[in-house]
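User: Structure with BES, tokens only please.
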Amino acid sequence: MNVNLSSESIISTKADCLALAVPEKGTWPDSTLKADELLGGLIGELNKAGDVSGKLASTLMVPVSGQPWSRVLIVGTGADSDRSPSNYFKVLAAVVKELREAPSKHAVLALADTTTNNADASEAQNLSRIGRSIEEHTYRFTGFKSEAPPERKLTDITVAASDSSGALQNALDLGLATGRGMNLTRDLGNTPPNVCHPTWLGEQAQKLSKDHDVIKTEILDEEQMAKLGMGSLLSVSAGSAQPARLIVMEYRGGKADDKPHVLVGKGITFDSGGISIKPGEGMDEMKYDMGGAASVFGAMQAIAEIKPALNVVAVIAAAENMPSGTATRPGDIVTSMSGQTIEILNTDAEGRLVLCDALTYVKKFDPATVVDLATLTGAVIMALGRQATGLFSNDDALAEQLTSAGESSCDRVWRLPIWDEYQSQLDSNFADMQNIGGRPAGSITAACFLSRFTKDYRWAHLDIAGTAWHTGAAKGSSGRPVPLLVDYVLSHVGK
Ligand code: BES
Ligand code: MN
Ligand code: ZN
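Assistant:
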């Protein structure tokens, strides 16, 4: 999509469609008033007649003549009490979904006007949200269909703004980069597991650094990981024909001695459960078990485009969890890179086994903060549903930062405890710990397991098992939590 910012009056901007907002009650945005005047009061009449209700995210497409635009798309922004960021995203989603099916090639969006949204949002924030929504809602994943679906007409979007200053352009670009990052995450997640295996993920990292000079990639193979003592990570790939990879991507936009913010992603390209094999129903969705890794890729791509002045290191623990004659058995004891021994009682609790070695490895970067992302437990879906990501942290300030990044990006997290009282559920009769903690508080004991490897730095764990993908008819990667990560990383700039 070609997206540009324009401070020209919408009245004189030629386009196939002009998108405008109408609230359910109260004052209309300036741009809507102007267009209504040009149209001889048409929008007001439609409003009186009830065709335009102003109800949140309702839309009406009206062909018009004698204007620079051949149709207007009127979207409702709801009552005053509806003007929250998440409702603004609903308005934008409705507009983009309508436009992508419409016969228009070129659309103008007059939706960044602050009177369109809640008073809390600046025009810049609105523009970022518009940019992200354009990318997010025009996404398609069609590479595996034998026949390409028909091309969409919409190719150009002009976003109206009060001026085309650098600051507003940057805000729009930030949103577009975030949306494109989400779409990279979705592409990686949706790619079938016979294609998306650890080596392929490594190739995607190399591609990212080829496309963006600011990213350097290093990939460790199993031999190198064995030398480092990553017995826990390697126990997960032991049953697979696909070798594991540890993928490191570095973005250095800050000073050489600025401590980096580290992102660690769980990259299980398929989780069969291993010898503790999963039931068959819905097992295909375990291709999304690399959702943490995919979100790290998406965030890194967005960061490479935005080029903030700080350092970010990404580490992805990529492996496939399969049953076979060489697979790890329940009862096996392995030694992690930290030296701590682990009794594997269930080979399906493999995420923590790959993450613990990656979390030990990242100490070498002397990190300012470490955030890991993982589709770690089914239990977090029981606790928080598919609305919120589970947050765990050994640092209140870091937890607070992630929480507010989640609020402003509408990609929310909710904190759960990792109190010492839960740690005893991981006691093993034979090793330093076991890899499962029983049914109660399954997400918390998984986080407690990780906390044993993260004592030396400020750390947070995000359990995205409920938020990384949609199930059912709309099955597909969600692109979450890329918006959260971008917001979070940028919140460190200048600190
Ligand atoms: N990848 C799964 C977690 C998962 C399950 C995410 C369903 C999304 C939907 C993880 O590796 C796993 O299998 N976890 C087990 C842990 C258990 C064996 C302690 C789980 O959640 O059942
Ligand atoms: Mn598993
Ligand atoms: Zn898993």
